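Reopening this one. Same input as before:
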Amino acid sequence: MDPIRNPYAPGAGQRPPELAGRDEQLSAFDVVLERVSRGRPERSLVLTGLRGVGKTVLLNALRSAAVRKGWGTGKLEARPDQSLRRPLSSALHQAVRELGHPEASEADHVLGVIRSFAQRDAGVDAKLRERWSPGIDAPAVRGRADSGDIEIDLVELLTDVGGLAADVGKGVGIFIDEMQDLGPDDISALCAACHELSQNGLPVIVVGAGLPHLPAVLSASKSYSERLFSYQRIDRLSRDAADRALVAPAGEEEAEFTPEALSAMYDATRGYPYFIQAYGRSVWDIAPRTPITADDVAVAGPEAERELAVGFFGSRFERATPAERDYLRAMADAASEEADDPVGSVATSDVAVVLGKKPQSLSPARDSLLKKGLIYSGERGRIAFTVPHFGRYLRSQA
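Same output, byte for byte:
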């Protein structure tokens, strides 16, 4: 079949041609947008899930929904080595511009507060702070959001931004990807700011996306975070949704799948959105004609698996040091191959047994893998892969 017309698109954060299986989240978010715009109380939102389930794609779709409602929006990706101040300032700068407040002086005042917040980066030399510009033309507003205490400053900053949005009857959405990578102080400040905003009824919401342990990170920071956010677990697609993700794009190109081919595709991809796109692309390129059959899926399977081995599994494995790779392989060996557990959850003590070492001596490797986002700890004493079926990949490479 014509590879130029291939509709499938495996890629990090790349929107698939058919966003299947997320209608519930999109509809619920439309309600949130309307309620917040009308001054009704509503919680901020946190999306959690494994790598490859489409969290970033859904986050971008929710942001697009906010833009269509006339909201001001900004997005940032958290990094463990970066303070929240600068990326959040850039995101809010964009959000204020999108709001289009009719009073230039009011908008400039808030932009000045954003600039003041950005320039109060404690990790930057004082002289450099004066020379560095966040791209905001308005002069910095002294005495507002510049105390140096991130919690105080963030509350003041978002209060001013929320007031500006309320003036024009709109809202502001802050979209944060990889939210688990925010530093402890930044997480605490963000929770405190969301708490203050909800108490004052200001139209600002935070929509975060992160790995499965993100709720635990938030809860460890502020005990009330369990009531502060609405948590939504993003998982693999149901059979019907997975079929729609394949059939709808193919139909746009006047192609079809046989029922047997769709069954074979679901067995191979297990409903994970990234896997569906990778298999869809390989099967399309290899199939000689429409309709695509189960035999085509079988022939394309090795090519799809090679694509996943390089672009999805291998790229992550390469980020690990030799000691960390040993730890990952030991996790895979310790996990039960027969259990229906895509993350390979194991006890840290079992990993130590496989490696023949004391658990304490493995702490540096484990902690480094946690920081790199290759594993996560859902409960005390246990760890799991952030990438579905990573253990199976490692065992196949042994």
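So the earlier flakiness isn't reproducible anymore. For the record, Strands lie at 44-48, 72-77, 172-177, 204-210, 229-233, 346-347, 375-379, 382-385.
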